[in-house]
Amino acid sequence: MRWFSVWRRNFLVWRKLIAAAVLSNLADPLIMLFGLGYGLGALLPSVEGMSYIAFFAAGQLCTATMFTASFESMFSGFARMQGQKTWDAILYAPLTIDDIVAGEIVWAASKAWLTGSTILGVAAVFGLATSPWVLLALPAAFLVGLAFSGLGLVMCVLARGWDFFSYYMTLVMTPMMMISGVFFPADQLPAPLVAIAKALPLYHGVQIVRPLIAGAPPADLWLHVAVLLAYAAAGYAAAIHFARRRFAS
Amino acid sequence: MSALAVRGLRKSYGTAEVVGGVDLEVAPGECFGLLGPNGAGKTTTLKLCLGLIEPDAGAIELLGEPVPRRAREARRRVGVVPQFDNLDPDFSVEENLIVYGRYFGIAPQDIAGRIPQLLDFAGLVGREDAKIMTLSGGMKRRLTLARALVNDPQLVFMDEPTTGLDPQARHLIWERLRRLTQEGKTLVLTTHFMEEAERLCHRLAIMDRGRVIAEGSPRALIAEHIEPQVLEVHGPGYESWMERAHTLAPRVERVGDTVYCYGEDIEPALKTVSGELSYLHRAASLEDVFLKLTGRDLRD
Predict the structure, then answer these.
(1) Exposed/middle/buried for A12, CB within 10 Å: 0-12, 13-18, 19+?
(2) Which residues of B touch A85 (CB under 8 A)?
(3) Per-residue pLDDT tens for B143-175?
(4) Beta bridge partners of B261
(5) In chain B, fewer beta carbons within 10 Å around the N or the C end?
(6) ipTM entry
(7) If you write DSSP's letter for every residue of B11-22 in order, what string do you get?
């Protein structure tokens, strides 16, 4: 549990800056949810048997969780590691780079979970999610957060500068968002794109959360959970590997 | 038992050997200095001793723990003042100490009792709630020193503790470091201020190109390597004066436009300095030893 002191450090900073942190992590996705949801929803009577805004809420929950996890692990992580040298200071204490990586990943996933669960709460308040099944979306959001925090931290410990993150965001995150069934059902896309989406974590997050919001158990739940867990585990392992390499020189 | 024992330590990056077979022995309660020009391998040696990087060869024992195998256990009882301040800018002065203590598993209520003492040591009483960015360089340095003491360490590593500080701030740090030595703490510091090493260190090692090239107390090093008197002469006509100096002083060298004469008795040379020549007559210092051993070439 040594990593917990790293998690706690980030939590204490977040608590100090809570207004800005909550605003940036929640206001954006909620504005988009209601803007697109009601705007587009007026044109689309229903998608997959749900109102468009409820359909989009599931995608937006996962996307916002992905963005929070990625931004925290990449940009904030890089600021702590490179700019402030906070990691160096921690390493003089009886902690290792593995403890820091674990603390950073779980922290970014926690922050992402807060984004996801707040969107879920807002969706519930607006009557978009009424079944008790939605409660399972809470652990699902944490799992999505873990998967993207791990990947984000890999980018963080590989980065030589800030611009490095643009590649990951533009070449990976944005296309992933478009093909993973966030805004429209993924199976409308050409088969090769669907195959790519199915190999990526966001698709599986959406496949878990959308049925839960609609009020039904997800099909192939364990497959989706397994893919997200695999991404989280692989990201964790790779982040530790590259972090050790970075700090060994 | 030594506080720190290093044998045959080696570390290379690619083809560049940064530490090339270093042996060090630091006794408990000693203030030990590691001197050397830039790129001598001082910082790498410190990082190796802390177990932050793996050596290619050699053995390190820090407070009785083999490093890197049990570096984590050793670091519980060690403090570190890094070359560049890395205080947490998101926290106040007091929060920096509390959060740092947590990394050692110290509960906030236990640190709370020590905070007044640490703030007093750092000369930051009344600045508990100050933001880090509002502190002066000297204050940051003192807070970094106080932070290194949150776990009440037996040994403190300091990498250039006074680099970049003005004389007032530097003297205050020196006073604090002496206090730590009086309390029985072992200090290992790197520096390239010879005055600092001469004033603080019981013993020191001069490093160059990854190796220890001389070791001993500051006085012993001066006595061993340099004549006790030094005369520096410069100004118009120094070249012709230098011709004469060769017959008057045991050892004469020229660096740029300055002539250095070294000897047991420098009076004969001193008497001949006249006209527009300027001179400085002084006792030999550690800096003379350092420059003699490591050369006068620039190291970048």
Answers:
(1) middle
(2) 82, 84, 86
(3) 999 999 999 999 999 999 998 888 888 999 999
(4) B231, B252
(5) C
(6) 0.89
(7) EEETTEEEEEEE
